[in-house]
Amino acid sequence: MANAIIARPQRWDAPFGPEMADDDVNRLLKLPEFSNIDSDSFPKHTPLDGIIRNDSRIVKYQPGDIIVREGDYGNSAFLVISGNLRVVIAPSLPRNLIGRQASKKKNFFEALSQLWTNHTMPEVRDTSRYGSQALREGNIRGESDARVFLQDIPSVLDKHNTAQLGPSSLFGELAALGRVPRTASIFSEDEAELLEIRWQGLRELRKYDPDWRKTIDERYRENALKVHLKSSPYFKGLSQEELNEVADATLFESHGSFEWHVSYKRMRDQGKSDKEPIIARQGEYPDGLLMIRAGFARVTIKMGNGERTLTYLGAGDSFGHDELWSSHLGNDVSLETSLKAVGYVDLLRVPAPILEKYVFNKDQYSKSRPLHQLATHAVAQDAPLEWAVEQRFINGTKAMLIDLNRCVRCDDCVRACASTHGGNPRFIRHGRTFDHWMVANACMHCADPVCMIGCPTGAIHRSLETGAVVINDDTCIGCGTCANSCPYNNIRLVDIRNADGKLLRDPENQKPITKATKCDLCETNPGGPACVRACPHDALKRVDFQGDETFGAAIS
Amino acid sequence: MNAIVIRYTLMLAAATAGLVALGVYSHLAETSLQRSEFVTGYALFGLILLLAMFNARKKLPMLPLIRSAYWLAAHVVGGIAAIALFFIHTGSIWPTGAYEQALAIVFYLVSLSGIFGYVVQRIYPRRLVQTDLEIIFERIPGELAEIREEAELEIHECTKETGSDTLARHYIETLSWYFRRPRFFLNSAFGGDAGNHWLRNQYRSVDRYLNEVERSYLNRIANLAGMKSKIDVHYACQSVMKGWLLLHLPLAAGLLGLMFWHIIVVNVYAI
Which residues in B lie closer than 8 A to residue A406 (C-beta atoms)? Predict the structure, then answer.
């Protein structure tokens, strides 16, 4: 049978924005940030103009438009082409101004009133609330998007300490490369034109141009690295000078794909495992301590014809210290285990000589239990861990774990969820199973919430009160970005209704108005998640996969 | 000892202490020629009201009430205590008087249905896990329809490819009965494997008439039938786990009504 033929997919098949005109590319290449770049230093398959054309887009903002919000996750950095922006230093902008909701717990009677106030039809909304949020259509060269804007800029400037960002300012690169939340909100003070560069383009610019590398690395060292090193137990008690020396010597690297959820979902649908780039290989020489800043990595050891997972590491964990310590004692050693990126990993590599100087020679250094000793566990004992890593459930901090040996399928949990969420449950009592454990399709409130990347209005955000990932229904525009990003299919778009129970439609195209919905851990209801409280058989738990203690305790 | 065992042990201890106290009181009252039935009767009435409140708790999940798991523990232990208290109150297994006998019948039925439900809910979940399949009850008809369609597609393909109608005939005559709806309900509910036994017999009876190509189709149909057999187990077990409440709840409501009338009658005529 003849094979079907298609062109091999190329990196820039899907550019960041709508196709950029040659004039735009030429204009951007004349900006000082790009005109000084030696375009010959870029490889032929990734030319500079290609990066600008495909990995960036021009975005225009009107006065008051919020460009980035404090606490948001993002995968792009911004370069100001023209206009002025304001970065809010202190105090932070109130939540209602940036499109989020302040969660207020219902009192006993408000909670009880849901008995008679819940509409007989699901997903009924008080549509009068929707006009109160300042939302307007954005302008990304022909693409429609929506954005939250500040209606009263002078008042914001009066009440908040802000700093101006003018043309040629670059911001957002740390959040884009380090997969950490944005540290400040930035809005447009007047009409502004920005170049938004997605993380892939930023990575290439850093890789091939020394000036971009210097700028990004210096900021990274100054703003993120030292903070991270300071919080590490290895470098506790170092003076500022010593810390500076450690920071200067530290290398930072990222492994895996920022958009790991895309390939993960694809591979999962095909019943295959996602690719996991190797960060450190068993048997190789350990040249430095690997400290994980963000994301997850799997520690494996060769076993038969496969790789056995011993544990997984998350932010704050480190890898390689046992071997480095052994090497310090004069032994000839190689890495006992391998480290693989599970999704996206951002890590720091502290060179061995630095450890020799500042860590191993300190009296108080205490050696931890080597990771490879975990291989003494029975294979069956580690099977749940292997499964949790394989399914990427390690991302969950409040995953809904159901013990199917106790669950009588009564659906009390589902009904409780529906009763507390206007008649429609926010999860499905169905999901991946291992032995008699099921991780149900309920939001896991991930440590790495990829759903929050790309929300145009910031409607999906982390609650300041509980850390839960919640959606502000007032500012959700139903674009589905979060639902498409969620690797576990735990966000659903629902058609909403007005107080009369009638489906709401867009007058222009008659399409139903949709909103994204998901488990919010009953943030506004007194008593915590209703599903857990409603289970009569102790079958349902919310577990944290971070560190195997909680997951391990739950299933033991 | 895990938290659940501790919870039940403590509640059982409290219930036993209460029953012993009421038993001693009842005995002392009898020996001093006093009537203990009012105290034990109202205690039983209060206990049954408490048991009935579990259902009300389920209707109020939005309130920060005690977790349902504690309510269930209290319901189970309280239910057992209610049986003992019933005997203390009536002084026999079978009371005298037609109305009281009717009350006793309903009480026993509520108790038996409750015990049945509890036992079923302890046994069936593990059996469902052992099927290595998880399915939501409401999706079962849809899943069965899908399996049936796939099986019929295989039969069509087989006929088209081989030109033989042997398998199609066997499907129409016999196998279609199995694929049409959940089968072997009682056997599945009692933990039997009659469905698979029946299927094996049907495969054997037609196998001798098939060539290799047809046999490969039969194998694929057997896989679909195997899946359907697991769904049948889910259907039976989940039906029973849901269905017993349809007996328990109306009987409990009836018991409450009979109890109220019993209290009115006793207060009007016995005092």
Answer: 125
